[in-house]
């Protein structure tokens, strides 16, 4: 066995590690639905697999730190691409200074910083197409496993109680599965579009399974986000080949309409029944108002990272106002404002805006369907955080992908005429020498990235 074959095996093993690492952070390996009762059934419980899965998560992070140390240049190259992201990340452990629960915020902040390193590894090790392939493999396996698990163990995988009949798969709640499967639809759809014909049928089959899971969860938010993202795919495709403002205006209109529809769907009872009814019918609007009132008391830096919703913390005032114990604000933008104030919200919004701006610039230059992935993921974050909270959480897949996607995008510009001529000269030279460049050159239509 020669050196090249050994190196090839090592690289394949590293991809397997990346795929497995993403699966670990989806939460499906805890098999929580097997041990935790459905909402409204009563009782409690925890999965015996939670601790082993946490250990796997830390092992994944540890390996990523080692691999980053072995490739410091590639790591430093991507780290500087999104300063707003790092402003947000560094606020999490520092927030112990003003937190109502200093040790808790410090511990969770350090854990979040560690989780971020796995996203940095993915961005520094793989280009965007490779990253999309890895995410597709990992999330495709997750979707198929969740589907088969529920068919094999319907007593665990299908909700009882309040949400009776809705699928939750191996996860703790139907909304958690809906959120995950709405995300899974993106990479599987894009991969099916640009994959070779021999793989296309399999990928479309996985996509169909994902769609079924979204429907079977009976989540209104999950369905609305999924439908919106699917409407955006052809519009982003048109955006790749056409100029003008018609398509961007249409995309903006879809965001506005879908956002309003999602909020209305999740808060239908208050519009119908008005105030003064049972808290179970109050929807999220009262929770949002009570949370915003608390933000006004400490607007700039919040109550400390993940400190607000602690049992003896400031959340008691919100719970008294809405008359039930909410685990979070059910809105990512409100939640981050409670944790890290308007400063933290500014960092997140600017990071998300950077993803949109660079994603659109990239989409204008590159023609591959894979280049739609950053824009679609940013859209997913924007839509889902209106009724759920997926912003900067420790050991959380959505945060890892935010880091990986954001840091995979550099500054984009078209090649100048002189750079095009230089590119052609290089390609002609290597073609004459029957060689390939030691490092890939950009295509004539490609984006050029500077750090």
UniProtKB/TrEMBL annotation:
- The O-antigen ligase-related domain sits at 205-349
Q: Looking at the Swiss-Prot or TrEMBL record, what is one Pfam family this protein matches?
A: Wzy_C
Q: How does it sit in the membrane?
A: Multi-pass membrane protein
Subcellular localization, as worded in the UniProt entry: Membrane
Which GO CC terms are listed, alphabetically? membrane
Where does the record place a coiled coil?
none
Give the main localization category.
membrane
This protein's record includes keyword Cell cycle: no
Keywords attached to this entry: Ligase, Membrane, Transmembrane, Transmembrane helix
Taxonomic superkingdom? Bacteria
Example of a GO MF term: ligase activity
Q: Which PANTHER family match?
A: O-ANTIGEN LIGASE (PTHR37422:SF17), TEICHURONIC ACID BIOSYNTHESIS PROTEIN TUAE (PTHR37422)
Q: What is this protein called?
A: O-antigen ligase family protein
Source organism (scientific name): Oxynema aestuarii AP17
């Amino acid at each position: 066995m020669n050196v090249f074959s050994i190196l090839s095996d090592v690289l394949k093993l590293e991809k397997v590690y990346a795929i497995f690492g993403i699966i670990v952070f989806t939460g499906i390996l805890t098999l929580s639905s097997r041990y935790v009762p459905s909402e409204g059934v009563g009782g409690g419980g925890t999965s015996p697999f939670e601790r082993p899965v946490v250990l796997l998560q830390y092992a994944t992070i540890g390996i990523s730190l080692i691999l980053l140390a072995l490739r410091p240049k590639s790591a430093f190259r991507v780290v500087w691409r999104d300063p707003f992201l790092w402003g947000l990340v560094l606020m999490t452990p520092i927030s112990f200074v003003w937190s109502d629960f200093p040790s808790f915020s410090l511990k969770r902040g350090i854990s979040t910083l560690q989780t971020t390193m796995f996203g940095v590894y993915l961005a520094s090790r793989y280009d965007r197409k490779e990253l999309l392939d890895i995410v597709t493999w990992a999330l495709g396996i997750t979707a198929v496993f969740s589907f088969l698990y529920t068919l094999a163990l319907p007593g665990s995988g299908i909700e009882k109680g309040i949400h009776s009949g809705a699928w939750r798969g191996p996860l703790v709640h139907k909304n958690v599965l809906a959120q995950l499967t709405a995300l899974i639809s993106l990479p599987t759809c894009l991969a099916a579009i640009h994959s070779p014909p021999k793989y296309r049928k399999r990928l479309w089959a996985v996509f169909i399974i994902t769609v079924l899971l979204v429907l079977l969860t009976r989540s209104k938010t999950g369905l609305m986000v999924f439908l919106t993202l699917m409407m955006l795919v052809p519009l982003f495709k048109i955006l790749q080949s056409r100029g003008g403002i018609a398509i961007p205006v249409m995309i903006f209109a879809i965001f506005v309409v879908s956002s309003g529809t999602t909020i209305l769907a999740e808060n239908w009872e208050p519009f119908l029944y008005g105030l003064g009814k049972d808290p179970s019918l109050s929807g999220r609007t009262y929770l949002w108002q009570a949370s915003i009132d608390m933000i006004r008391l400490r607007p700039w830096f919040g109550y400390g990272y993940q400190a607000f919703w602690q049992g003896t913390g400031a959340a008691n005032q919100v719970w008294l106002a809405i008359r039930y114990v909410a685990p979070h604000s059910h809105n990512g933008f409100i939640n981050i404002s409670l944790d890290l104030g308007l400063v933290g919200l500014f960092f997140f919004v600017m990071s998300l805006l950077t993803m949109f701006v660079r994603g659109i610039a990239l989409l204008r230059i590159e023609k591959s369907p894979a280049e739609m992935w950053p824009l679609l993921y940013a859209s997913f974050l924007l839509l889902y955080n209106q009724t759920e909270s997926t912003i900067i959480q420790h050991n959380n897949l959505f945060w890892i992908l935010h880091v990986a996607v954001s840091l995979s995008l550099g500054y984009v510009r078209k090649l100048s005429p002189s750079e095009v001529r230089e590119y052609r000269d290089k390609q002609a030279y290597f073609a004459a020498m029957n060689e390939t460049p030691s490092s890939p050159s950009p295509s004539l239509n490609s984006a050029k990235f500077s750090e």
